[in-house]
Amino acid sequence: MIDFMFAAAIGALFSIGVFQLLRRDLIKAAIGFAILFSAINLFFVAVGAFEGEFAPYVRNVEEGRSVSDPLIQALILTAIVVSFGSLSLVLGLVNMVSRRYGTVDSNDVNKLKH
Asked: So what's the pLDDT on residue 51?
């Protein structure tokens, strides 16, 4: 049941993010990036979910007890940092387009074509 809930949440977030990316409004497209990055992070959590009894940083674990995988935690932290950096770059580009052309609608920005 939990696997289905993870899959449904990831699918819903991914589809909403892609739908927002295809919009003409650049701010909504930037929000789509943020939603898509959240779906990717949730995907990493779902794939790396391990029912360990101890966190990976606990020392002196008794024999026979399982420890959670630390690689997934490192991947998620890296993905969060990359997503914040990418989102800040996208928002900076949206800010520059809105200042230069006076609109955030990509249909109204026609000087990009030569």
From this structure: 62
Q: What is the mean pLDDT of the chain?
A: 84
Predicted local distance difference test score (pLDDT) of residue 17 = 94
The SS3 of residue 54 is strand
Alpha helical stretches, state H, 1-114: 2-21, 26-47, 70-101
Say what the alpha-carbon torsion angle 28, 30, 35, 37 is, to the nearest 10 degrees.
170
Domains assigned to the chain: 2-52+67-101 (1.10.287.3510)
Rounded CA gap, 16 and 78, in Å? 23
DSSP state, residue 55: -
